[in-house]
Amino acid sequence: MFFFLSFTTRLQAWNHDFFWESMKPGGGGKPSGDLLDLIERDFGSFERFIEEFKAAAATQFGSGWAWLAYKANRLDVENAVNPWPSEKDKELVIVKSPNAVNPLVWDYFPLLTIDVWEHAYYLDFQNRRPDYISVFMEKLVSWETVNTRLEKAKARAAEREMEEERRRKEEEEGKPTNEEEDDDDLEMYVDNDNDDSEAE
Ligand SMILES: [Fe+2]
């Protein structure tokens, strides 16, 4: 018998780990620092953010997930155009995803998620999904974890931007993307050739 760990299964496992790590006993309350600043900038206020997040989680039709994510590019999924990022792309967004999909597929950095598959809440809340979402937001969310994820996402986005900028400059100057590596390859080829002739 063969067992296949499908892509969907792996995504679901990743989503669940991410979900469990989004919580802690005695969580909830209000975030602080950078995270709070960005929430206030991008949603108007923390209260507005909570409302929007709850609404997204409550209205994800059927099984799926609601997410807070850091969006650091203008990736357009429909026509696969990915222009250079700009300051205004660096924002927090609330997104919903069906089934096992997560925001990594849109090239967003996930910061927080809630599982709104029925199995996640049915035992405790039956069909009262909004109650489950409220408890999650008010008593369980670990804002420290979300803050740490935001810092990592920003660092990763900055790194990527520098890398893209470097590549763009090289293209503009008409250089091969990695000149040194090309030289190494050539030397290796010549060396190998010499070795062959010595062996004969
Ligand atoms: Fe689940």
Automatic annotation (TrEMBL):
One of its GO terms (cellular component) is chloroplast nucleoid. It catalyses: 2 superoxide + 2 H(+) = H2O2 + O2. GO terms for molecular function: metal ion binding; superoxide dismutase activity. Residues 31-149 form the Manganese/iron superoxide dismutase C-terminal domain. It is an enzyme of class 1 (oxidoreductase). Residues 179-200 have a biased composition (Acidic residues). It comes from the Eukaryota. Keywords: Metal-binding, Oxidoreductase. Gene3D superfamilies: Iron/manganese superoxide dismutase, C-terminal domain (3.55.40.20). InterPro entries: Mn/Fe_SOD, Mn/Fe_SOD_BS, Mn/Fe_SOD_C, Mn/Fe_SOD_N_sf, SOD_C_sf. It holds the Pfam family Sod_Fe_C. Residues 154-178 have a biased composition (Basic and acidic residues). The keyword Oxidoreductase applies. Its cofactor is Fe cation. This is superoxide dismutase. Belongs to the iron/manganese superoxide dismutase family. Residues 154-200 are annotated as: Disordered. Its EC number is 1.15.1.1. It comes from Gossypium raimondii.
